[in-house]
Amino acid sequence: MNRKEFLEILRDYLSDSFSENEVSDIIRDYEEFFLNGELEGKSDETIISSLGSPKTIANDLKREMKKSDVNSNQKKDYGREAKKIWGKTKRLGKRGIERSKEFLNSNDILNEKIPIWGVKAILIILTLFLIMPTIFIITGIISATLTLIGFTIMDIGGYIISFPMMTANMYMGLFIFFMALAGTGVMLALWTIYIYIVKFFKDIILRYISWVKTRKMYIRVKENNTYNENYNNNTLSLSKNEEVEHEIDDEDKEDSYNE
After folding, report:
1. Residue 97: pLDDT band by 50, 70, 90 thresholds?
2. What residue ranges do the domains of the chain occupy?
3. Which of 10, 13, 106, 256 is the most exposed, fewest CB within 10 Å of its CB?
4. DSSP of the chain, one letter per residue?
């Protein structure tokens, strides 16, 4: 089993108990462990043997999650379960595309096909480029929320007005009631569309944040490795200098003795 297979199996074991974002965070942590081990010269087999099987890791994490929720007796959230199933199906369908279109992957960064400063610059530029659209989207969502709340209040007001109106004018009261009823149907449809739109943009934003975190992790691993290499080189250089100095001192002592 190699790193890729290990992480994919671990992802599958985790996906039935954790949200997609939680799974991504966990996978990122273990990917960083692999990258650090790889830079230290360890093979995938050695790293995997030290970690244990994906199933064992997943079970341990699930037990920890259950311990943290031991005092909560909430009913099963079927909506969340459905979301997990949908997320898993969508992930399996897009996994091949994501692999082929991965930008700034670990190989590019760790092997310095793109310099670290270049990767940082790309991340900054992309983030700055996306700030304004994100602000517009958030502003639009807030405006839509307030508008929908206002229309919902008006719709509820229609029901409230219709009943007293029936006592004065039955036909007018019924008309207002059925108009409010029709408005309720429209509002339900609008709220449903609104929720899907919010979820869609939330998913995009979270995916981008996860993507940036992964690239930062690659940068961190590379910088740590570069620091360690420089430290080792400096230590080796100092050791050689000390050896040379000792040799010179020994030669001076021999010359003095001979004289």
Report:
1. very low
2. 1-67
3. 256
4. --HHHHHHHHHHHHTTTS-HHHHHHHHHHHHHHHHHHHHTT--HHHHHHHH--HHHHHHHHHHHHHHHTTT--PPP-HHHHHHHHHHHHHHHHHHHHHHHT--S-HHHHHTTSS-HHHHHHHHHHHHHHHHHHHHHHHHHHHHHHHHHHHHHHHHHHHHHHHHHHHHH-HHHHHHHHHHHHHHHHHHHHHHHHHHHHHHHHHHHHHHHHHHHHHHHHHHHHHHHHHHHHHHHHHHHHHHHHHHHHHHHHHHHHHHHHH-
Residue labelled with tokens 């659209």: 133
The 10s digit of each residue's pLDDT in 111-155 is: 666 777 777 887 888 888 888 888 999 999 999 999 999 999 999
Tens of pLDDT, residue by residue over 123-135, are 888 888 888 888 9
> Is the four-CA dihedral 55, 61, 64, 66 of positive or negative sign?
negative
Distances (CA, A) of 153 to 52, 179, 180: 56, 14, 11
